[in-house]
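Morning run. Coffee first, then this:
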Amino acid sequence: MQGISWTAINLEGESNHAGTTPMKLRKDAGFVAMKIGAYVRDLVTKMGGNQVGDCGNGRFWP
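And here it is:
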């Protein structure tokens, strides 16, 4: 038995992350995307069995 679910997520941030921008002022959508990918892996690992999870692709641009 197989079930497939697709979800599209758009994240917005600001492209001023290099240089002197303090970490607390950054709006880094790429970091959030990586956290989502890590969460998906953790979730399916905790579920066990033959569960799978995937974050198919990502596009980054300023």
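The chain has one helix and no strands. Good start to the day.
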